[in-house]
Specification:
alpha+beta, about 400 residues, PH-domain like, eight-stranded mixed sheet, 13 helices
């Protein structure tokens, strides 16, 4: 039911800009700019790609740029994202994120991770707002630019092409392009929450900002250069999107369990635990989400749904000596020294139950925990009082 509600909302978002699209629809850029069709198309592609890479920064930067570029008497007619309250709020949030990263670079990574996880959900929320209220407006401007291109009268299908509103295919194409680029860019946020090193986090963010800076520089040199680079980014993102989507789902559920442990505890089902694959497990790609189910004869099946929609499929895991290892945030399934599956954080504390239900070999402590236990025992041994020594 939740899926169909989500699908209905997506379809409504795609069709909303196309219904009643006469003058009642806001004209975001036409009131201040009068580009030739090619430049309008290049600007639209560049804006959509840049915003998809970093929604909050992209919307705030584009909105402030159009605001200060527009004559004072026309600024009230600009769309919402060009108003000071919108891009000003965005820049304040960005300043807080920058402060978090600057201070967190000198702090242990484990202390910074909850804030990185909160930023993960901020990134998603910004993308939802941008996809619903920003991308359709830009796509509408791109379609208006295409309408200025005259179709030769002798061309086959001239009348049909002249009567079709370009927005009917421009808006969905823009939404798809935004989606694939955002999913790949959002994977960086997931990698940041999984990385234990603050230096790696900083390098990942610098790399993403470098791509944004390159797009802006190419567009400043020549609009067609910026658009060409963005088209290349969109094509690469479309190829990487399936893997990035699996990583996004994994990161979202992982961060949700860490930030909302009270909810995670209520949804834990040790009898059929939620897991994600690591490496080549049963021929499935990494980070495929599903559940482990005992077959009753000592065997274990991994059950999942392709694209979260298809009928449930099961893969029988090969017979091996497996054990569950406690993790700092979530337990994992090991076969020898190879980590095969990782549980969601909601299953911390359920390791004994998991081993019993799934007929695994044993529960082992995490190497860090084993080292800490050994260190405590060593310290206790040094300061322990020998009972044979009397006063």
């Amino acid at each position: 039911m939740k899926f169909w509600m989500l699908l209905t909302m997506i379809c409504a978002g795609l069709l909303a800009p196309l219904v009643g699209q006469e003058e009642s629809v806001a004209e975001p850029l036409a009131v201040t700019e009068n580009h030739v069709p090619g430049v309008a198309m290049a600007q639209g592609i560049t804006e959509i790609t840049g915003v998809a890479i970093s929604p909050l920064l992209g919307v705030s930067a584009v909105g402030s740029w159009h605001y200060f570029k527009s004559p004072a008497e026309l600024r009230d007619d600009l769309p919402w994202y060009c108003q000071p309250w919108a891009w000003g709020t965005g820049f304040v949030i960005l300043a807080l994120i920058f402060l978090k990263d600057a201070l967190g670079a000198a702090a242990p990574g484990i202390l910074k991770k909850p804030f990185d996880m909160a930023e993960l959900f901020e990134n998603k929320a910004s993308a939802v707002v941008a996809s619903a209220a920003f991308v359709p407006l830009v796509a509408r401007e791109m379609s208006r630019g295409m309408e200025k291109v005259e179709v030769p009268a002798g061309m086959i299908g001239h009348e049909m092409m002249a009567s079709i509103d370009a927005a009917w295919f421009m808006v969905p194409m823009a939404m798809i392009a935004f989606a694939v680029v955002f999913v790949c860019s959002h994977a960086i946020n997931v990698l940041i929450i999984l990385s234990p090193f603050s230096t790696v986090d900083t390098m990942l963010k610098i790399a993403r900002f470098g791509v944004l800076l390159t797009i802006g520089l190419m567009y400043w040199i020549a609009p067609w250069l910026g658009a060409a680079l963005c088209v290349a980014i969109i094509l690469v993102a479309a190829w990487m999107a399936p893997s990035a989507l699996r990583l996004m789902i994994f990161g979202t559920r992982f961060a949700g369990d860490v930030l909302m442990p009270w909810r995670a505890d209520k949804t834990a089902t040790p009898e059929t635990p939620h897991v994600f694959t690591l490496g080549d497990t049963g021929g499935l790609p990494s980070r495929t989400g599903g559940r482990l189910v005992s077959t009753g004869d000592g065997g274990v099946e991994f059950r999942y749904r392709r694209f979260c929609l298809m009928p449930e499929t099961s893969v029988t895991l090969a017979e091996k000596d497996r054990h569950v290892e406690k993790g700092l945030l979530s337990p994992a399934v090991f076969s020898g020294d190879d980590k095969q599956l990782i549980f969601l954080p909601r299953y911390r504390g359920h390791e004994e139950t998991l081993v019993e239900v799934l007929s695994f070999k044993e529960v082992r402590e995490h190497p860090v925990a084993r080292g800490w236990s050994a260190a405590k025992a060593w310290i206790a041994g040094i300061f322990a009082r020998d009972p044979r020594v009397t006063e």
